[in-house]
Structures are given as structure tokens and as C-alpha cells.
Amino acid sequence: MISEKMVKEINDQIQRELFSEYLYLQMAAYFKGENLDGFAHWMEVQAREEHIHAMKFFNHLYERGAKVILQPIQQPKNDFKSPLDTFKYAYEHELTVTKNINNLMEIAKKENDYASESFLKWYVDEQVEEEDSFLKIVSILEKIKDSTNALFMLNSELGKRE
């Protein structure tokens, strides 16, 4: 049986994952408004991934006999200044997500909730990949600075994400 504390924390994480989806859709909207469709596409794919992450938590609770309680999703930031500003913000957001996942893992370990611990292992590994993806794009954007040609080349590359 899953503890009430873990159920509450996972319900909180579902809200955070849905917020991440919402945030990345807002970032996609920013990029669309800037006619950077490749960047927008990359963020749309990221938003879909976050939805999948939320649904994995959703299903985990039901598989464990618990109940999902959906919570309100706050409005995300929407005043991005540049692609670099946007990706730096997203990277910082992913660092927060990593902290949240690590906190869930700590709770699972303390409570000897081996099923949740096993389930959360995937998220721990996923966060390494997420942080790396965002940090690489931040690094590239820092290198290209104000080069319009390089920005459009990156836009084209990001548009290929599946």
C-alpha cells in the first residue's frame, strides 16, 4: 500500500508536471510570435513529454490503489526577452524539477516504498537527460550571441526534434 504522504506528494508532482507542460507551451507561443517555428516546435515536443510524465504519475497512483486529486495550474511566465532568456529560464525550471523528483525518491526510500522507488528511478534518469538537453541549447545560444544566421541555423535544427 502506498502511504498518504506519498500520494499527496505524487499528486503535487502531477500538478508540477502539468505546469511544466503549460510553461513549455507558453514558451512555444513566445517562439511562434518571434517567427522561430523550429524553437516553437522543440518546445511543443517538450510540452507533450511533460504531459506524458504527468500521466505516468497519474497512472502510478491508480495502479497502487490511490486517488488522483488534480490541482490548479498557475499561469506561467510569459515575458521572455530572447531565445537565450527563454532557455535559461527553462533550464532553471528543470533544476527545480530534479529537486522535486529527488525529494520524492527520498520519501520513497524513507518509507520503504520499493514500488515508488523503482518507478521514480526512470524520472531520476530522465532528469539527467532533460538538464543536459536544455544546458546544451543554452550553451549554443551563448556562443552565437547576436548572429542571426546562427540563430536561424539552430532554429532549423531544433525544428527536427521528434
From TrEMBL:
This protein's UniProt keywords: Cytoplasm, Iron, Iron storage, Metal-binding, Oxidoreductase
Highest taxon listed in the record's lineage: Bacteria
Compartments where found: Cytoplasm
Catalytic reaction list: 4 Fe(2+) + O2 + 6 H2O = 4 iron(III) oxide-hydroxide + 12 H(+)
Residues that hold Fe cation according to the record: 17, 50, 53, 94, 127
Example GO biological process: iron ion transport
CC terms in the record's Gene Ontology section: cytosol
Pfam families tied to this protein: Ferritin (PF00210)
UniProt domain Ferritin-like diiron: residue ranges: 1-145
PROSITE patterns assigned to the protein according to its UniProt record, in alphabetical order: FERRITIN_LIKE
Keyword presence, Cytoplasm: yes
Family (UniProt): Belongs to the ferritin family. Prokaryotic subfamily.
Function of the protein: Iron-storage protein.
Protein name: Ferritin
Organism: candidate division WOR-3 bacterium
